[in-house]
């Protein structure tokens, strides 16, 4: 995902679940979330985007966290409802977290959001 409207849809109109290393935002028509103000495809595969701010660390660290999250989400994307939009925001502890801790937090957040996990 690259469009700001898609990020805003999930972050402002979707559900949110926070964990120690990340915050997941999920918008899906299947989860009774509010109707979007912008046109969004309700069919097709689920999409994901990532927010990793400078608070997480320098560029090398941010990119490593983003790659790790991208890998974890790719393995779970097919479990989300079709047409849904997922935004994963990394928190500063994500920089020092082990891969299994990130995976646990992501699975826990997705279960909380109703997107399986």
UniProtKB/TrEMBL annotation:
A GO term for molecular function: 3'-tRNA processing endoribonuclease activity
Keywords: Endonuclease, Hydrolase, Nuclease, RNA-binding, tRNA processing
Membrane-spanning segments: none
PROSITE patterns tied to this protein: RIBONUCLEASE_P
GO cellular component: ribonuclease P complex
Enzyme class: hydrolase
GO biological processes: tRNA 5'-leader removal
SUPFAM superfamilies reported for this sequence: Ribosomal protein S5 domain 2-like
Presence of the UniProt keyword Transport in the record: no
Pfam families, A to Z: Ribonuclease_P
Family: Belongs to the RnpA family.
Role: RNaseP catalyzes the removal of the 5'-leader sequence from pre-tRNA to produce the mature 5'-terminus. It can also cleave other RNA substrates such as 4.5S RNA. The protein component plays an auxiliary but essential role in vivo by binding to the 5'-leader sequence and broadening the substrate specificity of the ribozyme.
Name the record gives this protein: Ribonuclease P protein component
Organism name: Actinocrinis puniceicyclus
Primary gene name: rnpA
């Amino acid at each position: 995902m690259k469009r700001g409207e898609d990020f805003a849809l999930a972050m402002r109109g979707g559900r949110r679940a926070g964990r120690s290393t990340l915050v997941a935002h999920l918008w899906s028509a299947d989860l009774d979330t509010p109707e979007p103000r912008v046109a969004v495809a309700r069919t097709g595969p689920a999409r994901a985007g990532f927010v990793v701010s400078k608070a997480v660390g320098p560029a090398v660290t941010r990119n490593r966290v983003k790659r790790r999250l991208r890998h974890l989400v790719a393995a779970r994307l097919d479990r989300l409802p079709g047409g849904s939009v997922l935004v994963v925001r990394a928190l500063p502890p994500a920089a020092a977290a082990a891969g299994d801790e990130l995976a646990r937090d992501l699975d826990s957040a997705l279960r909380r959001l109703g997107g399986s996990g």
